[in-house]
Amino acid sequence: GEDVEQSLFLSVREGDSSVINCTYTDSSSTYLYWYKQEPGAGLQLLTYIFSNMDMKQDQRLTVLLNKKDKHLSLRIADTQTGDSAIYFCAACNNAGNMLTFGGGTRLMVKP
Amino acid sequence: DAGVTQSPTHLIKTRGQQVTLRCSPKSGHDTVSWYQQALGQGPQFIFQYYEEEERQRGNFPDRFSGHQFPNYSSELNVNALLLGDSALYLCASSSPLGKETQYFGPGTRLLVL
Fold this sequence. Notes:
The complex is a heterodimer. Chain A is mostly beta strands. Chain A has no helices and eleven strands. Chain B has strands spanning 5-7, 10-13, 19-24, 31-37, 44-50, 53-57, 64-68, 74-78, 87-95, 98-104, 108-112. In chain B, strands 2, 4, 5, 6, 9, 10 and 11 form a seven-stranded mixed beta sheet that branches. A four-stranded antiparallel beta sheet of chain B has the order 1-3-8-7, with no helix packed on it.
């Protein structure tokens, strides 16, 4: 089945850009997602990209998809302390009904 | 417009007991999925309900069962609770026109003692 991997931790200074990386194994994944989770809360959908795209920009967020290498990244421009959270990458199966999540990347933003 | 709601927010049970968790989808959504998130890990897919039937199931034992009602709300039942069932249980809903995009509720935190 699908396997999604992320690095565990990223620390940046306020105002810098953050780049969170993710790899997945199933080339038939249709959509790829980025979710944000703050302490004690559920998952907030940040953005998603369809597998036939290679880039999507949404305000401070830029998603890059390299389908050949099965690599997804999320760039957050002008990172703020409020961006401190755990970020999850997820891949949707071909049937469009099941998400497989990575283990999450904890982003710490220092003032 | 209310998002996905879940109840209760927290629950404490003992081993061997049974638990029922509830979820109301976002307005206009007809599909409900359940995920288990153990501490420090990513969510894992349990199953998905659509038209009151289980459409897809993840790698979870039969102790985990569910139901969807005509108003699209859903229940997750777990029988014979184990210590390892302690986790955050997340419900997600999706709409008929965007079924690939799932919106999550705040979760129910279950502690099994």
